[in-house]
Amino acid sequence: LSAILNVRIVYLDILRPFAEAALLG
User: Fold this and answer.
1) Spatial CB neighbours of 19, under 8 Å, sequence gap ≥ 6
2) Domain enclosing residue 1, as ranges
3) Can you tell me the distance from the alpha carbon of 25 to that of 18, in angstroms, rounded to the nearest whole number?
4) Interatomic CA distance for residues 4 and 23, integer angstroms
5) What is the pTM of this model?
6) Tens digits of residue pLDDT in 8-23
7) What does the angle CA 15 – CA 6 – CA 25 come to, to the nearest 5 degrees?
8) Which DSSP letter does residue 22 get?
9) How far from 5 is each of 12, 13, 24, CA to CA, in Å?
10) In which domain of life is the source organism classified (predicted)?
11) Alpha-carbon distance 11 to 17, whole Å?
């Protein structure tokens, strides 16, 4: 489970900038 959580955290950490960029347009 820890591995899955780590991957999920990394995924969110990578996806966050793209989400912010999309919101900012």
Assistant:
1) none
2) 1-25
3) 10
4) 27
5) 0.42
6) 999 999 999 999 999 9
7) 10
8) H
9) 10, 12, 28
10) Eukaryota
11) 11
Q: What's the structural domain count of the chain?
A: 1
Q: How far is CA 20 from CA 6, 7, 12, 13, 17, in A?
A: 21, 20, 12, 11, 5
In terms of residues, how long is the chain? 25
Rounded CA gap, 15 and 9, in Å? 10
Distance CA 19, CA 10 (A): 14
CA distance 20 to 9: 16
